[in-house]
Write a structure and sequence with these properties.
314 residues; alpha/beta; Rossmann fold; Methionyl-tRNA Fmet Formyltransferase, Chain A, domain 2; 2 domains; 7-stranded mixed sheet; 6-stranded antiparallel sheet; elongated
């Protein structure tokens, strides 16, 4: 097939690569405009744009994927189908309908659960035992189109959103090429979603990722895992500024004032929650790299009795 590929982050890379490996022709890539990124806020291209340029694939970067001029550009590519993977914009029905076979999407949940922008993060935060990917036909609604293929995957006990996302990216790429093969052979069946069972996974931002230490330890641990690695669960640390926390382990036998550091050592930093405590094994202090929490302790970045949370000092 001739494919018009839509995607932006690294999550979409396995799908893009799998298309060429399976003999499909990617006639163009649509990705988000270059944006400032990193500590230096230098303008950077998306991982998908970089891959496309290295592969000699034409790249389109509209600020908004709509309008007569843009429609003319994608029509000229004469694609059989659009494949959309974490592109970053809601596409209008007239855009979805341009290829003769319409548009399909890799969604990182078992639809109709967790429709929306951040299904991987919320699957972990909400304590789901399983996740997966759904290949679906796109329509005007939010992730509401008929399902072509679903693949279920377990969520491992200490798995972070970043780790789960990397795994689902590969699973999604395999499911995509299987779905396209079934479409080519006329063997695909479209299953309508049960809209009454739909749940939602809204976009996460920095404020979403702020830790509430009054929650029980198991919920705090889920929050930290779910926000890892982007945007990163964080908490104020007084005048030292916000610190990001990673790799939590629940310790229900310990407790104290929520947000209080009750133990430090080579194994990490133990922090009291509303019930129980969480041992954090990796951290990222302001302006520094992600590091083992033991290094943070040895560098005197934190001490027993410190209170995390409360008002951030600017």
């Amino acid at each position: 097939m001739k494919v018009l590929f839509w995607g932006t982050p690294a999550f979409a890379l396995p799908a893009l690569r799998s298309l060429s490996e399976e003999g499909h022709v990617v006639v163009g890539v649509v990705t988000q405009p270059d944006r400032p990124a990193g500590r230096g806020r230098e303008v950077a291209m998306s991982p998908i744009k970089q891959e496309a340029l290295e592969s000699g694939i034409p790249v389109l970067q509209p600020e908004k994927a709509r309008g007569d001029e843009f429609l003319a550009q994608i029509r000229a590519l004469d694609a059989d189908i659009s494949v959309v993977v974490a592109y970053g914009q809601i596409l209008k029905p007239e855009v979805l309908a341009v290829p003769r076979l319409g548009s399909v999407n890799i969604h990182a949940s078992l639809l109709p659960e967790l429709r929306g922008a951040a299904p991987i993060q919320w699957a972990i935060v909400r304590g789901h035992a399983t996740s997966g990917v759904t290949i679906m036909r796109m329509e005007a609604g939010l992730d509401s189109g008929p399902m072509l293929l679903r693949v279920e995957e377990p969520i491992e006990p200490e798995e972070s959103a970043g780790e789960l996302g990397g795994r689902l990216a590969e699973v999604g790429a395999e499911a995509l090429v299987e779905a396209l093969a079934l479409m080519e052979n006329g063997g695909i069946q479209e299953t309508p979603q049960d809209h009454e069972r739909a749940t939602y996974a809204p976009k996460v931002d920095r404020e979403t990722a702020r830790i509430d230490w009054s929650l029980p330890a198991d919920e705090v641990a889920l929050w930290i895992r779910g926000m890892d690695d982007v945007p990163g669960a964080w908490t104020p640390h007084g005048a030292r500024g916000p610190v990001k926390l990673f790799r939590p382990k629940v310790v229900n036998e310990m407790g104290g004032v929520p947000g209080e550091v009750i133990e430090t050592g080579a194994e990490g930093v133990l922090i009291a929650c509303g019930m129980g405590a969480v041992r954090v094994r990796e951290v990222q202090p302001p302006g520094k790299r992600r590091m083992p929490a033991g290094d943070w302790v040895r560098g005197r970045g934190v001490a027993v009795g410190d209170r995390l949370g409360g008002e951030q000092q600017v």
